[in-house]
Design goal:
Keywords: Signal. One of its GO terms (biological process) is peptide transport. The chain is built from 21 helices and 23 strands. By secondary structure, the chain is α+β, with helices and mostly antiparallel strands. A hairpin with a 2-residue loop joins β8 and β9. α20 runs antiparallel to α21. It is globular.
Length: 615
């Protein structure tokens, strides 16, 4: 019955979007749907593609370059030469463009820019992207860390039920006035950022229009129920739940496209060209983003011309080769890694660990806090087969969660190996061999339509059950993209499989994200992980992994940074912190009539302003 329903849904999708050739309408068929449209909470590429085309940042990457920038809402890219980078790299001045219109008709002002960045910093949702700006501007990793640093007490002691205790309220207001507000100021037609210390990747963070550097309309935002801009109310708006954000399903930017519809039932986003866009009205008048989980449906849509590009399944790429109406662009450089991760402290609310006990019907929440449990998983992945058979060669091995092409990548570091004998030996050592004696049952989840993650999950299931027949039972669950993200963020998945696309092209964006106790993945890896990487270790010269990461990110000496990153990766490899499977090589499938596409590994999806259709 489920199979029949799937076909019916697919036929309905085809009927709805059958446009034949229309140069004004563009249809993209992917496998994921947005998680949220709040620019300061969205932290996935599907949400990012919508935000990228609806909002704008002050500057942007120039074409395919990762080192050159061009102005957007600012009229100049700050540099030492033009006098807009000052104080030895601690002050950045952005002259704000005049006459830019928001989609609601309001005119962009420097005050909008200041408000947008301050709102993001004060909101700082858990697991969101704002850590980048907190670190770049203030040298801390979060709002909570700044509160503790300024007040001298942990957040749990400062706030009760979301409100500061009376004895700390004045201090909290003072923190905004003395620390946050002076760091981002309007001076005439300029917005000035004052950093706590020089930070080299600052412009790369500012250039990434995926959310954190985008600009909101201040007046409209306040009316919608976002932060009211006052210094004595901001805590009421911090870290609110995703669905409760006024921006969850609404987007009002200055970008080339305005959001017309986000139909979450039918998994469809519709964008329309913004006629008053300051760079000129886009050639594509309507963009439709569809979530189509089934490869066969996406393939048929591309072949018929009902989709202009689709998410490809590399395993089946040959099915569309040789079609003169389809263009395949391959060997696209990527700045990402695909990793099998672990929750070292799975949430007790998780439905993916069975009973949650050593009774043969579950997995204890702390199972993967044991090094040999993680080591066993490293041996049950046939890495070469994944790259050869599933990726069709469009991937390369990497020793750690750092892609080739960034400072500190070392191809001489050891690679994990596929070896079922060693996998069983590791399980015999993990938790006194209880997995083999008593039994183990858990679930590996993947996001629906992602055949690559499905294949990796199936491989792990097959080999774990093979080496412990009747004792280890692994189930596999397909979740829609928002549900998958939520389950990861809540540390409910014992073994999430995920891909990290760089926020900015610096090793800190990977090393900090994967291996630091305050990194983006730390909450989903759990308290046992945080304790492990924050504890001083003899093999690290008496320092913790956290301390080494901080040393590497704060050093201005590339040679010193490279050495530290190699040391960090070696420790991560030796302790099986996560299992890097491959670094992807990009492949794109589009109709031959699509023109204007260009690669940039920082971009979360299509740049629809540059695309057009021509037969």
């Amino acid at each position: 019955m489920k199979y029949v329903m799937s076909i019916l849904v697919s036929l309905l999708v085809l009927a709805v979007v059958s446009f034949a050739f229309d140069p004004t309408i563009y249809v993209s068929a992917g496998v994921g749907e947005p998680d949220t449209l709040d620019i300061h909470q969205a932290y996935d590429t599907v949400s990012g593609e919508v935000i990228y085309n609806v909002y704008e940042s002050l500057i942007a990457y120039k074409g395919s370059s990762l080192t050159e920038f061009e102005p957007r809402l600012a009229t100049q890219v700050p540099s030492v030469k033009n006098g807009l980078i000052r104080d030895g790299g601690k002050t950045y001045v952005f002259p704000i463009r005049k006459g830019v219109k928001f989609h609601n008709g309001a005119t962009l002002t420097p005050e909008d820019v200041e408000y947008s960045f301050e709102r993001g910093l004060l909101y700082d949702p858990a697991g969101g992207p704002m850590w980048m700006l907190w670190n770049a501007i203030f040298g801390v990793n979060s709002l909570n860390e700044m509160i503790q640093k300024y007040v001298g007490k942990p957040v749990s002691e400062v706030f009760k039920d979301g409100e500061p205790l009376p004895e700390y309220k004045d201090k909290i207001v003072q923190m905004y006035k003395e620390v946050i507000d002076p760091a981002i100021e309007v001076e005439g037609d300029n917005v000035v950022f004052r950093l706590a210390r020089p930070y080299g990747p600052f412009l790369t963070i500012m250039a990434h229009t995926v959310g954190w550097s985008a600009v909101l309309d201040k007046e409209t935002s306040i009316k919608m129920g976002l932060w009211d801009g006052k210094p004595d109310t901001w805590w009421k708006y911090r870290n609110i739940a995703k669905e409760k954000s006024p921006l969850y399903a609404i987007a009002i930017g200055t970008g080339p496209y305005r959001l017309v519809e986000w139909d979450r039932t039918n998994r469809k986003v519709v964008l329309e060209a913004f006629k008053d866009y300051w760079r000129g009205e886009p050639r594509l008048k309507k963009v439709i983003l569809l979530t189509v989980s089934e490869w066969g449906t996406r393939k048929l849509m591309l072949e018929k011309g009902d989709a202009d590009d689709i998410a490809v399944v590399l395993e089946y790429l040959d099915q569309i080769r040789g079609n003169k109406d389809i263009q395949i662009i391959d060997n696209i450089p990527s700045m990402s890694v695909t990793v099998v991760g672990f929750s070292w402290s799975v949430s007790p609310n998780s439905k993916y660990i069975g009973s949650g006990k050593w009774d043969g019907n579950g997995m204890p929440p702390d199972f993967f806090s044991n090094i040999n449990a993680r080591k066993a998983i490293s041996y049950v992945i046939n890495y070469d087969a994944v790259i050869r058979d599933v990726l069709k060669g469009y991937g390369t091995r990497i020793p750690a969660a750092l892609p080739n092409g960034l400072l500190g990548f070392d191809p001489t570091l050891p690679l994990y190996k596929f070896n079922l004998t060693e996998a069983r030996k590791a399980l015999e050592k993990a938790w006194d061999g209880k997995a083999l004696k008593i039994g183990l049952k858990f679930t590996i989840a993947y996001n629906t339509g992602n055949l690559m993650r499905q294949r990796i999950a199936e491989m792990i299931k097959t080999y774990l059950e093979m080496i412990a027949p009747g004792k280890i039972k692994v189930d596999i669950a397909a979740l829609n993209w928002p549900s998958y993200l939520d389950a990861m963020r809540k540390a409910e998945l014992p073994m999430p499989i995920f891909n990290w696309l760089a926020d900015f092209p610096d090793p800190d964006n990977f090393i900090f994200t994967f291996y630091h106790s305050a990194g983006t993945y730390a909450p989903r890896q759990g308290d046992n992980f945080k304790k492990f990487v924050s504890t001083p270790r003899k093999e690290l010269g008496g320092k913790s992994l956290d301390e080494l990461i901080e040393m590497a990110r704060n050093s201005s000496d590339p040679e010193e940074r490279a050495k530290l990153y190699v040391q960090i990766q070696k420790f991560a490899i030796d302790n099986y912190i996560s299992i890097p499977v491959y670094q992807p090589v990009g492949v794109r499938a589009q109709r031959a009539w699509v023109k204007g596409w260009y690669p940039n590994p920082m971009r979360p999806g299509n740049d629809y302003f540059e695309l057009y259709k021509q037969q």
